[in-house]
Design a protein that fits this description.
Elements: H1 7-10, H2 34-46, H3 49-62, H4 65-68, H5 76-85, H6 89-95, H7 105-134, E1 148-154, H8 161-174, E2 178-184, E3 187-194, H9 196-222, E4 224-231, E5 235-237, E6 245-248, E7 261-271, E8 282-292, E9 300-305, E10 310-312, E11 315-325, E12 327-332, E13 337-342, E14 346-347, E15 354-360, E16 367-375, E17 378-380, E18 386-388, E19 397-405, E20 425-427, E21 438-440, E22 444-447, E23 453-457, E24 478-487, H10 491-510, E25 514-522, E26 528-536, H11 543-554
Antiparallel strand pairs: 1-26, 2-3, 3-25, 4-6, 4-24, 5-7, 7-8, 8-9, 10-11, 11-24, 12-13, 12-23, 14-15, 15-16, 16-19, 17-18, 19-20, 19-21, 22-23, 25-26
Helix pairs in contact: 3-7, 7-9, 9-10
Length: 574
């Protein structure tokens, strides 16, 4: 028997368990979406709130690698060191743009998709919200008993139904509700709603989030980040050529740089001395700096501390790191000074065992290079090797391995001041040469091998303070500070939008969206009672209490046959 000849089949849906399998002729052909249909479907999926939240989560996950490996934009020396320490892994990570996370193609793709998704979410929701604000509150439902918080009260003595409803409308309006009077089938009622600020807060949250994305992009495009190492007593001028490394935004113009001068006057380091379990751990670093404006007048004093940048001339100056910069003087065989400078030595461990490179390109028969190790508090291990046991200057010792030959700088090829390539040079001291490395303490001088001249480890103690001759080395070596200088023209706007994000989120979370109705209902026996009910959009645990509280204030005593419990918004009461 065919489905059409079975009378029962006509009354059953096609997917009923007893329904026969449809024939090929009876199957429904789904229409093809086509290109436009697929594009519309993709756009709706992209602009859904679920997709926006997913993209926001992906953006947070995509930013994680930026904190796990050094970034070229903020720590180029760290990237170089990472390649040296991980020669096999680093090229693989570089292929995935892990050292340029925030400008990578995949991070930008997530960023732009989130940008488009938020725009697609906000615009239609804003229009819908604006239309809802201008619309009248909905008509009073015929059966209020189906709604949440339903309760009844007697009509107050001596008051008509219209007067009671008018009074309810006035009370609800004073409570912040939008109201509308209705009179359906001779039963006056008032419809009230409030909580549209909840949706406003939601829109403010998403709009501000979009604003953060836009302002961060603008700030990254017109700002810059640069790094510079400054030794105590030396200065740095905010010009493009003065930076050790510089990372401009896409639209940055170096003509916008304000050439102020920053002088590192003192770097104060405080280490733990009381707790033996944490002896030598850093407690605080403070860089005392002087700022001189473009006109060369009006020197301003300032402090730069870890996580406490100095705001000056539209830039933020951060203290990234610090270390020692021993002053080394080299003379030739004729006693002429051919080199003298404070050389930043890079710390290698928590006790500031540091390594540095001295390059003497001129004034000698051959170019000289020296690889030095500085031990702030030198001790000798059982193996005979030197080490530092404390990061402060208690017993500083400098060792130098000397090389002679070609430094590789005559061809104009840029080289790092922190590295020395000994492949084209002859080692004169240390290693397998059979000649001991040069060992110096502040204020001491030793002869260079082969009668080349002398090298001196200068005592940098300021005048008037105990120095190396007095056995006090606490000020014998200058310190350096590594500054990170940022300019982000959108910082203020990012703060404004961040505040709006928090405010919008709080409003959307804590302001309930409610509708309340009050109706004067006529019973079959001709008596009139006041019915109260509410409806919430989303979870609103306070709805029942709000309706009951208003009914107690507005109406008379509860009728004897009034329902004892509130109705379930999802199910009709019986």
């Amino acid at each position: 028997m065919s489905p059409r000849s079975d009378p029962g089949a006509l009354s059953r849906p096609d997917d009923h368990i007893d329904s026969p399998e449809p024939s090929v002729d009876a199957s429904v052909a789904q229409p093809k979406l086509g290109f436009v249909g697929w594009m519309r479907f993709a756009w709706r999926q992209l602009t859904s709130m679920r997709t926006a939240l997913l993209l926001l989560l992906l953006l947070a996950i995509a930013a994680v690698p930026g904190s796990l490996v050094p970034q070229r934009s903020s720590d180029p020396n760290g990237v170089t060191q990472y390649f040296s320490d991980n020669p096999n892994l680093a090229p693989v990570l570089d292929g995935f743009q892990m050292f340029d996370v925030y400008t990578s193609a995949w991070f930008s793709a997530v960023y732009l998709l989130l940008f488009v998704s938020l725009i697609g979410c906000i615009i239609p929701r804003t229009k819908h919200h604006f239309d809802a604000l201008r619309a009248r509150p909905p008509r009073t439902p015929a059966r209020l008993a189906r709604l949440g918080g339903y309760t009844e009260r007697a009509l107050p003595d001596g008051e008509t139904a219209d007067a009671a409803i008018e009074r309810a409308a006035a009370d609800l309006k004073r409570a912040g509700y939008r109201i509308e009077r209705y009179d359906l089938r001779g039963e006056p009622s008032v419809s009230a709603e409030r909580g549209y600020l909840r949706e406003t807060g939601n829109l403010v949250f998403h709009t501000a989030l979009l604003g953060v994305l836009v302002t961060v992009a603008i700030g990254g495009g017109f700002g810059f980040a640069g790094q510079r190492v400054v030794v105590e007593g030396q200065s740095f001028v905010n010009t493009l050529a003065a930076y050790d490394s510089f990372n401009p935004g896409r639209f940055f113009n170096d003509a916008t740089l304000d050439p102020y001068k920053l002088t590192l006057e003192d770097l104060d380091a405080v280490y733990e001395t009381q707790n033996q379990d944490a002896l030598g751990q850093p407690v605080d670093f403070t860089a005392e700096v002087g700022i001189t404006g473009r006109d060369g007048e009006g020197v301003a004093e300032g402090e730069v501390k870890v996580n406490h940048p100095l705001r000056v001339h539209g830039t933020d100056v951060y203290l990234l790191g610090n270390g020692y910069a021993p002053t080394i003087t080299v003379t030739n065989a004729d006693g002429e000074v051919v080199f003298t400078d404070a050389i930043p030595f890079l710390p290698q461990d928590a006790n500031l065992t540091s390594i540095g490179v001295v390059k003497v390109p001129d004034g000698m028969p051959e170019q000289l290079g020296m690889i030095g190790f500085l031990y702030p508090t030198q001790t000798t291990l059982d193996s005979g090797a030197f080490a530092s046991t404390y990061p402060d200057l208690v017993y500083p010792v400098l060792t130098l391995n000397v090389y002679a030959g070609d430094l590789g700088i005559d061809e104009g090829t840029p080289t790092s001041v922190y590295t020395l390539d000994p492949s084209t040079m002859e080692q004169l001291t240390g290693g397998k040469t059979g000649v001991d490395s040069i060992e110096l303490m502040p204020g001491e001088t030793q002869e260079l091998p082969n009668g080349l001249g002398t090298v001196t480890f200068e005592d940098a103690t300021p005048d008037g303070l105990p120095n190396a001759e007095d056995g006090d080395y606490s000020h014998s070596v200058d310190r350096f500070a590594s500054f990170d200088i940022h300019r982000d023209p959108s910082q203020g706007w990012v703060l404004v939008f961040a505040i709006l994000i928090i405010a919008g989120l709080l409003v959307s979370l804590f302001i309930p969206r409610r509708r309340v109705w009050v109706k004067a209902a006529t019973r079959p026996d001709g008596s009139v009672v006041l019915e109260y009910a509410g409806l919430a959009r989303g979870e609103d645990p306070g709805l029942d209490d709000a309706v009951s509280s208003f009914a107690d204030r507005h109406g008379g005593p509860a009728p004897e046959d009034a329902p004892e419990t509130a109705g379930d918004p999802a199910k009709p009461t019986t």
